[in-house]
Design brief:
single chain, about 290 residues, alpha+beta, five-stranded antiparallel β-sheet, about 30% strand, globular, binds biotin
Length: about 290
């Protein structure tokens, strides 16, 4: 995985390597040419940056006349964003910080299943490039977990919308080669592909698989709906049949998770027996 020419190029042309980065570390830097050489989809614009505040923020600020999908990757994010205004820990050259901007001829309300299919695409890309014995599961709406530990998170932001079209930025963070982080920095159970598989994984190959699988699934979602992904999603539903807590619109609900609706909304059976549907919120397993 030693890619020294890329490291030198990066050192000269971009920002300085972080001070705490040891030059003895073997580093595979992100490389647009390598990613493109693995891609089946060629009609995509890819930008790779050394440092960005956030790949999502970058694409949210970009404006183009065409509707071409654009991918943005960064080696480090200085203000990586998580859901609910949290920070996403984004150390240099360890993980994948990936954003994709794309357009839909659908209203925002028709996009409710989108974040679920993105979680599914992340699972499939990891399975394709870094297969492992533990099944990758999804905690509604889109946290990718292994043994209840978070491996990947997704943040979707709406860039513009009218009643029948919208443009979104899909942000994906995958913990690839990160091995340690202070408890104050990541305050929830987490894991990485290196921890799970015992060796470093290629971020370039994983990025290429992610782009291909995501673009295929997004095209299918554009023509059809979440319904055609529902069975596949249910097989990865880590909360199904369990007692859970849901925080939605500042209210806390508890109940039994009964899967998702055809729109990708969460189905929760309340203690009264009522089956209630939720379009957004944060779930957690009750012990
Ligand atoms: C979560 O809270 O689970 C969502 C995390 C999303 C992190 C990714 S990293 C790439 C993209 N850019 C960001 O600033 N956030 C997303």
């Amino acid at each position: 995985l030693l890619v020294l020419p890329a490291l030198r190029r990066w050192k000269k042309g971009f920002v300085d390597l972080p001070k705490n980065h040891s030059s003895d570390d073997t580093v595979e830097l992100l490389d647009k040419d390598i990613i493109q050489s693995h891609l089946h989809h060629q009609s995509i614009h890819i930008d790779v940056f050394g440092e960005l505040e956030s790949t999502n923020t970058y694409l949210m600020k970009q404006h183009h006349e065409d509707t071409l999908s654009r991918v943005c990757l960064a080696e480090v994010q200085t203000k990586g964003k998580g859901r609910f205004d949290r920070r996403w820990h984004s150390p240099f050259a360890k993980n994948i910080y990936f954003s994709l901007s794309c357009s839909f001829s659908k209203s925002v309300s028709q996009l409710s299943g989108l974040s679920l299919i993105v979680g599914l695409a992340v699972c499939k890309a990891i399975d394709a490039v870094c297969p492992q014995k533990n099944k990758l599961m999804i905690k509604w709406p889109n946290d990718v977990l292994v043994d209840q530990k978070k491996l990947s998170g997704i943040l979707i932001e709406i860039k513009s919308n009218t009643k029948d079209a919208c443009e979104v930025v899909i942000g994906i963070g995958i913990n690839v080669n990160m091995e340690n982080a202070d408890k104050e920095i990541i305050n929830q159970p987490w894991t990485s592909l290196k921890t799970l598989l015992g060796q470093k994984q290629s971020r370039n190959q994983l990025c290429a698989a992610l782009i291909d699988i995501l673009l295929d699934d997004l095209n299918r979602f554009k023509c059809e709906s979440f319904f055609c992904f529902m069975n596949e999603w249910n097989k990865r539903d880590v909360l199904f049949g369990h007692s859970i807590q849901l925080l939605s619109n500042e209210k806390v609900y508890t109940g039994i998770e009964k899967g998702v609706s055809q729109q990708g909304h969460l189905l929760l059976q309340l203690p009264s027996g009522e089956l209630k549907t939720f379009a957004s919120g944060e779930t957690s397993l009750l012990k």
